Amino acid sequence: AVPGGTGMGLPAAVRDRVAAVHRGSALPERLRLYDGWAARYEQDVAALEYRAPHLAAASLAFAFPAPRAGARLLDVACGTGLVARELHRRGFRCLHGVDGSAGMLERARSTGLYQELRLCVLGREPLPAPADHYDAVTVVGALGEGQVPSTVLPELLRVTKPGGFLCLTTRSNSSNLRYKAELEAALGQLEQSGAWQKLLAQEVEYWERATTEEESTQGTGYISGVVYIYQKCPVPHLEEG
């Protein structure tokens, strides 16, 4: 069943807060917006019926070989911990998180789901982790216009173990289509170069409520999105002699 009503039924304040962080403001301003949004963030995304954390965690769990409890995961742009909650429900227990917003990290810390949380502005600085460190890396909701640049992909790959998994999402709404095309070109180039292989690219129709009529997919009141799962290629053994 299609949930009724359009994003136009969203409280105006929610629409404004969502629009503000997607407006492609300069980085310091955007981080300030996220800091200020932290306290209301989970209520707002519930109003948006934001399904990405659930969909991403379910996709990763499906691809991930058992056992999960000891696997080390990095939740990039972890926000308040929505993705951690979904991963935890699916048996992942060793979760590290990074985010550019101190306000968001404070909320994430209060969940008690992360073993480690670090402040890190992706695209500006490297991830605070050694190479080949994580069994899986997730970036849910942050790859988008005015947010994290698609140039971060090699850095995500760097901290992933050979054979490890990367779970990425982006939105398919009209104002993000240029970014999505750039992202998919970058994903494809890395695949052609043998850095990773694509396991899944799942288009999802009801990703979250649209905040404007123009963004809505064919008048449904929702925007669509996509979940990608990649596996980092194991280092090939050099032949002797």
UniProtKB/TrEMBL annotation:
Pfam families: Methyltransf_25. Coiled coil: none annotated. Residues 74-164 form the Methyltransferase domain. SUPFAM superfamilies: S-adenosyl-L-methionine-dependent methyltransferases. It comes from the Eukaryota. InterPro entries: Methyltransf_25, SAM-dependent_MTases_sf. This is MET27 protein. The lineage of its organism: Eukaryota, Metazoa, Chordata, Craniata, Vertebrata. The gene is Mettl27.
